[in-house]
Amino acid sequence: MKDAIIKTQQLVFRYTTEEGVAPTVLDGIDLTIEPGSFVAILGHNGSGKSTLAKHFNAILLPSGGKVWVSGLDTADEARLLDIRRQVGMVFQNPDNQIVASVVEEDVAFGPENLGVPPQEIRRRVDAALTTVGMEGYATRAPHLLSGGQKQRVAIAGVIAMEPACIVLDEATAMLDPVGRREVLSTVKKLNREKGITVVLITHHMDEAAQAGRLVVMHDGRIVRDGPPARVFQDVEGLRALGLEVPETVGLMYELRQAGLDVPLDALDVDGCAAELFSLLTQGEKSEA
Amino acid sequence: MALKDITLGQFFPGSSPIHRLDPRAKLIALIVYIVALFLAVGWQTYLIAFLVLAAVVAVSTVKPRALLKGMKPVLFLLVFTAILNMFYTPGRELFHFWIFTMTYEGVARAFFMVIRILMLITATFLLTYTTSPLALTDGLEHLLSPLKKIRFPVHELAMIMSIALRFIPTLIEETDKIMSAQRARGADFDTGNLVQKAKALIPLLVPLFISAFRRADELATAMECRCYHGGEGRTRMKQLRYRPADALFILAALAVCVAVGVLAHFGW
To answer: Strand locations in chain A, DSSP E?
Structure first.
């Protein structure tokens, strides 16, 4: 238990409504997230993935079962700040999570709340802005930035707290393709270079495919868990859950259905192209 | 409706000595100056107050035209004050019309009253024009911090102010968007009498309010995630620090106030 950054055990969550009817949103989740890993949680709307994310830093508390963050029980109110400084969150709407009217003041917000000394805050803010590539915008007004830039500021605000883990709750859902690429490459860099654990909540298959581990949720349960290449091989199973596979895997699947011998684990365009190339050249060889 | 033209606590960035002063020093000096304005009686004392203000405006590099532009909304108040003073001050009669009597004393008083209000507004604008909203909020929080002892929510108030300032541009943008959406569906915001115009605003205000509440909820969650737990134990990246220039500025304001007070006492 000490080793896991986030661990849930038989996590159950129900919303309490006034009529007393309590729909179960999370239904017995057992999940362990290792430090330094890059985990994507995939599922369509209503699968409970965002609700699960809110349990990772005690914004929501379990109705049943337990959640530990770095060995701290999230139900322990006395350690609330220790839990939240460990796991930072980035949300969907960039406008609704920026607090200050100057970029650097916003990045400073987290460390200020933690009571970090002023010089140290300055150092962290500059370092965080450099990490996300926004150092040239330190004194700008956030509302004049693009969506992708705003999300990068939000990420800087989280890493200025020096967390062990960042949870991105559909952080790219409102962005254009350029913004999505910006955010995703920033997050991958953090994971690779700083060893920060990344949990990416998404319904974009292409984003999920880039993670090291893919967890698929459906109706408040975990239905698949493994490396993306393996999870996506089960094309029929995923389609039965109402999920599409990445286009490259879809193409390979169709080719297989047509009787061609191609593997299903090509997750990016380059890999897919290489497979197709070898398939075509093989065909030429056998003909000749 | 040109929403982008709203000048609310407008700030003109600059690097003049007035811009660089500590916001607290500027706030204190403003209060002292306003006291001086109310102590002034004769033209000599008003002249002193005017010269001091003119000097500060000159140093601040704020364009007088920008200050004049800010006077527009208070024009009505000025005219109203002037008329009331002209007719309701007892004294030697200047002319008489029906039940109204204009007096020499009234005209003099109206003149000084208008000058006083103009200088008061100019001085206040000078503060908001040369101080960023964030610095102003910080300054207020510091100056009011003794009130924390009587449980006055100083930090919360400052936080509310800075969040409000942060969301003004966002909400203006959103209003523009909703207006365009409603216009596309045939809404008319520009014609009709006052009642019709007010009614036309309802389909604008309802979605705006709903979205503002949703924003507030999401922002609160985001702030919680970033360990916000009130003002207790909170540090600031940018510390406010008094420099000698700030002390000098406050002392100068006090000197002006005392001088005006003394002169006014001797009937100048």
So the answer is: 6-14, 24-33, 38-42, 64-69, 72-73, 87-90, 165-169, 197-202, 213-218, 221-226
Low-confidence ranges of chain B (pLDDT < 50): 1-2, 5-7
CB distance B31 to B124 below 8 Å = no
Residue A247 to residues A213, A265, B74, B174, B245, Cα–Cα distance (Å)? 19, 12, 63, 36, 66
**Chain A contacts of B224, Cβ < 8 Å?**
59, 84
Residue B52 counted as domain residue: yes
Domain count, chain B: 1
Residue A156 clears pLDDT 90, i.e. is over it: yes
Q: Name the β-bridge partners of A12.
A: A27, A64
For residues B141 and A266, what is the distance between their CA atoms, to the nearest angstrom? 58
Q: CA–CA separation, A104 vs A138, rounded Å? A: 5
Return the amino acid letter for B232.
E
Is there a domain that residue B34 lies in? Answer: yes
B→A contacts (Cβ < 8 Å), by residue, are: 133-134, 162-163, 165-166, 169-170, 173, 214-215, 218-219, 221-229, 233-239
Per the CB < 8 A criterion, the answer to whether A172 and A151 are in contact is yes
pLDDT of residue B268: 67
3-state class (DSSP) for residue B82: helix
A-chain residues within 8 Å CB-CB of B225? 57, 59, 84, 88-89
Q: In what order do the strands lie in the sheet with A197-202?
A: A87-90, A165-169, A197-202, A38-42, A213-218, A221-226
Q: Decide the pairing of beta strands A64-69 and A6-14.
A: antiparallel
- Domain assignment present for residue B155? The answer is no
Q: Looking at the complex, does the CB of residue A57 fall below 8 Å from at least one CB of chain B?
A: yes
The CA radius of gyration of chain A, in Å to the nearest whole number, is 21
ipTM value of the model?
Answer: 0.86
Distance CA A142, CA A95 (A): 8
Which pLDDT score, from 0 to 100, does residue B9 have?
54
Residue B67, domain extent: 13-131+240-268
Kindly list the domain boundaries of chain A, sorted by start residue: 35-58+79-227, 246-288
A to B CB pairs, distance under 8 Å: 94
**Average pLDDT for chain A:** 88
Tell me whether residues A81 and B229 touch, CB distance under 8 A. Answer: yes
The pLDDT value recorded for residue B5 is: 46
pTM of structure: 0.81
User: What strand order describes the sheet that includes A6-14?
Assistant: A24-33, A6-14, A64-69, A72-73
Which residues, 6+ apart, have CB-to-CB distance to B105 below 8 Å?
A: B89, B90, B91, B92
CATH 3.40.50.300 fits A35-58+79-227, yes or no: yes
Residue among A125, A84, A150 at smallest CA distance from B166: A150
Q: Mind telling me how many Å the CA of B168 is from chain A's nearest CA?
A: 10
- What span, in angstroms and rounded, lies between the C-alpha atoms of B35 and B245? 22
Average pLDDT over residues A51-75: 91
Q: Say if B234 falls within a structural domain.
A: no
